[in-house]
Amino acid sequence: MSELSKIKTFAVIGGDKRQLYLADSLARDGFRVILGGFDKLLSVGAVALSDVSGALRCCDAAIFPLPCLRMDNSLNTPFSDEKRYLSEKDCDLLSQIPVCAGMADKLLRAYPFLQKGRVFDYAGREDFAVLNAVPTAEGAIQRAMEEYEGTIAHSRVLIVGFGRIGKVLARLLHALNADVTVTARKPGDLAMIRALGYKAADTAALKGVDGADIVFNTVPSLIFDRELLKNTDPDTLIIDLASLPGGVNFEAAKTLGIDAVRALSLPGRCAPKTAGEIIKTTVYHILS
User: What is the pTM of this model?
Assistant: First the structure.
């Protein structure tokens, strides 16, 4: 029997709008759902509201947000004014049930007692990353439309990196009639970029940016350091999609007069409903 078939009640602990849509979708599937850490809300339809400890006392499984914790190891609860940490009793309850969390390694480091339980990282799974690439790419284009004073159509776009997000982003931008160049390191990826009808460039050979209106960086290492930025046209808009610490020296960009923006957590900001469904689907796969 799968873990999922044993569950009657989910506790959804903290998070942004993604977690609210997740809770609603779980309830529509017939589960009892209790929200914990949403003190600013008065009601959420068929979903029950409680404090964190109350939610954990009544559930068969718990789902934490992405990221699950803040930098100070408090729970990520933007819908609450209270800074909340897990108590010893909370950890004891969590050690007895399946726990799904985004960036679960942070949870295990902050609360080592949970290593005795069953803690799963949904954000570290390939199926989650692939599904999440679509709202991330759409959110990146939305951000570009807000920041760039021209149209996406006929703009010259450089995408650094041909991973999951880079692939989806290139396809969407190409469909919007942008002039798309994509960088990669592997010969096979460079060949695929050309085969799909985009221009290709070697990431390792990137020494500056000249002739691009918009740059999307997807590589989570410092590609756009001060030296590369010094050789970049100051009229270029750079949008950094890479997870922290990111791929752009923002201080250097500001000094050089280059417009660079950091665009993180785009699914939660731009498509929380879809992002919530993606979390649910991944959790179901884990518990099945």
Answer: 0.88
